[in-house]
Write a structure and sequence with these properties.
Rossmann fold; single chain; three-stranded antiparallel sheet; binds nicotinamide-adenine-dinucleotide; about 20% strand; globular; about 350 residues; alpha/beta; Dehydroquinate synthase-like, alpha domain
Length: about 350
């Protein structure tokens, strides 16, 4: 895979910029420098959560704000309804630019609200969590959960820009930082063996404190996603690769509130790597490297509920098509394959 292909523009000093589909500019660099350059000269309304507002209100203090609650329980149609009502109250119109500042929940919900209000407003993101920077904010998917099923309703709409400033991660809790590492490890397994090796070499404290290293790792992980989205924006082919570990992760999130998204992904990565190894698709030493890296990053790899309970939740995953499901299997570190199989066959793998 070419990470430095034409979609990935250039390295400008300490800034990395990537263009997706010529519609979405992703910048890994300073928010203070980039936000004034990227915000259009028209009315801006900010969507954020109460936590981010406490830490970063001054960054965007001059604009009207809509604040949402915290956690996956806020990623609902109810929250969406509250945002629409607040937009109406604020007199938001089709020329208003929506700026979401926050982690994956804020960008998923705000992206959906913006792309549907008045049939679609332009929007951009300042992504503040590691998971948001390496995954959720990039690629144009947004949405909310319904009846506890993840991301059941949403759109594919590219944000005009995404700013990923690693200095914002200093206020992120250790647990949330670790959560982002799970998606970074996922990207490395999908398509970047060197990123995987870099993660193996760095300890957790170094990752948190070495901004230059972190910036490069974030950029590499985004590059994996950007390059896949460039080829398959609407998930009819290669984009399915990004769901590595997610079938079981979503089932874990559905069955238990003990794990957050990244923790569930880490557990899902471990379980699918072991299954791929049992199936003879992944070599034992590569499987051991995956498990070792996840364990060293501090993840609990034992699922929080019985496997039988998780497998029951799999059928309702929105990626299921009738009785079939698309499963991503690691073949090596840096290479994966997508297989369509009956849900029953998937269950037999465990
Ligand atoms: N759209 C996509 O392609 C995509 C991809 C992956 C994940 N997701 C979604 O992303 C969501 C998870 O995102 P998340 O892990 O960022 O969760 P989150 O948005 O809930 O953020 C985690 C917590 O950290 C806080 N926080 C965020 N940035 C902070 C900062 N800089 N300082 C202090 N606190 C900060 C938030 O307020 C929140 O309490 C899930 O709902 C998942 O489904 C979407």
């Amino acid at each position: 895979m070419c990470y430095f292909c034409s979609t990935i523009q250039a390295l400008v000093g300490m800034n990395y910029t990537i263009n997706i589909k010529d519609r979405s500019q992703v910048v890994v660099g300073s928010v203070a420098e980039w936000l004034p350059r990227l915000l259009p000269a028209r009315r801006v309304v900010v969507v954020s959560d109460t936590n981010i507002d406490r830490h970063y209100h001054t960054l965007v203090g001059e604009f009207d704000h809509v604040l949402i609650g915290l956690g996956e329980t806020s990623k609902t149609l109810h929250t969406l309804d509250a945002i629409y009502r607040r937009f109406i109250e604020l007199g938001v119109d089709r020329s208003t630019f929506i700026l979401a500042i926050g982690g994956g929940i804020v960008t998923d919900v705000a992206g959906f609200a913006a792309s549907t209000f008045m049939r679609g407003l332009e929007f951009g993101f300042v992504s503040t969590s590691l998971l948001g920077q390496v995954d959720a904010s990039v690629g144009g998917k947004n949405g909310v959960n319904v009846e506890g099923y993840k991301n059941m309703v949403g759109t594919f709409t590219q944000p005009r820009f995404v700013i990923c400033d690693v200095s914002l991660l200093r206020t992120l809790s250790e647990r949330e930082f670790r959560t982002g590492l799970a998606e970074m490890i996922k990207s490395a397994i999908i398509a970047d063996e060197e990123l995987f090796s870099m993660l193996e070499k760095a300890d957790f404290a170094t990752l948190q404190s070495d901004a230059e290293l972190l910036q490069e790792l974030v950029y590499r992980a985004i590059s994996v996603k950007a390059s896949i989205v460039e080829r398959d924006e609407r998930e009819s082919g290669d984009r399915r690769l990004l769901n590595l570990g997610h079938t079981l992760a979503h089932a874990i999130e559905k069955c238990s509130s003990k794990f957050n998204h990244g923790e569930a992904v880490a557990c899902g990565l471990h379980l699918i790597a072991e299954a791929a190894c049992r199936k003879g698709v992944l070599a034992k030493d590569a499987c051991d490297r995956i498990t070792a890296l996840l364990a060293r990053a501090g993840f609990v790899l034992e699922p929080p509920v019985a496997m039988s309970q998780l497998l029951k939740a799999v059928k309702k995953d929105k990626k299921a098509e009738g009785d079939d499901i698309y499963i991503v299997l690691p073949k090596n570190i840096g290479s994966c394959t997508v297989e369509k199989m009956p849900v029953a066959d998937f269950k037999k793998m465990f």
